[in-house]
């Protein structure tokens, strides 16, 4: 049996061919990797653009929704309210003109008046819930006070309102007013529906050029991440509050711990008029 010996030059030539092929393979792999990275970078940019587009559409929907609520609220308050008021006045006049011999008719008129008055109260309540006129006419603070008082009256849950602000929050624009008000409204709705709380602490303060609103209840806790992943209305409520605060360059957080209740915090940068006086502190318990 003969063994073929590979001489030195031939052996080095074979090694060179293998090395050259390995280098070519590596360069090919690097080229493919670069193309792959560039492709994924492009996909990432497209994803970011799509997210920004969706965020913009979401904000436009919120703004359009808010404007529609405002219009419907005005229609209910002005048009329907005036019609019912006119009906009530006519019924009152008719009752006064009815003779004493028609007591049955008087009773029916009084019953009709009560129904009209009840309808007027319901319509005014619907109008306030859609878009309270006080929010546009008088500003954020009076609107929050009115809503908190009405909430306590309906739910019998006391809300202790504290505000640490310099003067009036007159520099808050319409978008900022609406964002803070809607977050407060949604937070209190969740308290009434789910928390089973016996007390709510509502705090509004200015700190480092920001307006900070905290709403804490002593009711049941819940797993925030679990709710955010769930396909329920509560998830939409939390996401809606977060979206509203992001629209005004703010932040929204929620903490919920067993035995400590739940705290909703909304924070956004604002400009306040400079004053030399100390911060005014007001505390009210609405029962």
From TrEMBL:
It comes from Candidatus Abzuiibacterium crystallinum. Residues 175-272 form the Histidine kinase/HSP90-like ATPase domain. This is histidine kinase. Coiled coil: none annotated. The keyword Repeat does not apply. PANTHER family: NITRATE/NITRITE SENSOR PROTEIN NARX-RELATED (PTHR24421), NITRATE_NITRITE SENSOR PROTEIN NARQ (PTHR24421:SF10). Keywords: ATP-binding, Kinase, Nucleotide-binding, Phosphoprotein, Transferase, Two-component regulatory system. Transmembrane segments: none annotated. Pfam families: HATPase_c (PF02518), HisKA_3 (PF07730). It catalyses: ATP + protein L-histidine = ADP + protein N-phospho-L-histidine. Its EC number is 2.7.13.3.
């Amino acid at each position: 049996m003969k063994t073929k010996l590979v001489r030195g030059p031939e052996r080095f030539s074979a090694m060179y061919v293998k090395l050259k092929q390995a280098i070519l393979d590596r360069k090919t792999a690097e080229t493919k990797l670069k193309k792959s990275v560039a492709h994924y970078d492009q996909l990432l940019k497209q994803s970011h653009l799509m997210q920004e587009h969706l965020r913009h559409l979401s904000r436009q929907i919120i703004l359009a929704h808010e404007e529609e609520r405002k219009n419907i609220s005005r229609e209910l308050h002005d048009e329907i309210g005036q019609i019912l008021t006119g009906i009530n006045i006519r019924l009152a006049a008719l009752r006064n003109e009815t003779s004493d011999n028609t007591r049955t008719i008087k009773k029916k008129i009084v019953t009709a008046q009560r129904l009209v008055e009840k309808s007027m109260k319901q319509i005014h309540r619907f109008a306030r819930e859609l878009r309270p006129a006080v929010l546009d006419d008088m500003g954020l603070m009076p609107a929050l006070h009115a809503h908190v008082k009405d909430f306590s009256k309906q739910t019998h849950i006391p809300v202790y309102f504290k505000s640490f602000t310099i003067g009036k929050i007159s520099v808050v624009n319409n978008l900022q007013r609406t964002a803070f008000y809607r977050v407060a409204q949604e937070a209190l709705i969740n308290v009434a529906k789910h928390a089973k709380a016996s007390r709510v602490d509502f705090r509004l303060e200015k700190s480092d050029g920001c307006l900070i609103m905290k709403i804490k209840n002593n009711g049941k806790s819940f797993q925030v991440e679990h709710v955010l992943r769930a396909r329920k209305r509560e998830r939409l409520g939390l996401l809606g509050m977060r979206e509203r605060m992001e629209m005004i360059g703010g932040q929204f957080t929620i903490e919920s711990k067993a035995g400590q209740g739940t705290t909703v915090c909304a924070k956004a940068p604002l400009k306040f008029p400079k004053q030399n006086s100390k911060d005014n502190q007001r505390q009210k318990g609405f029962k």
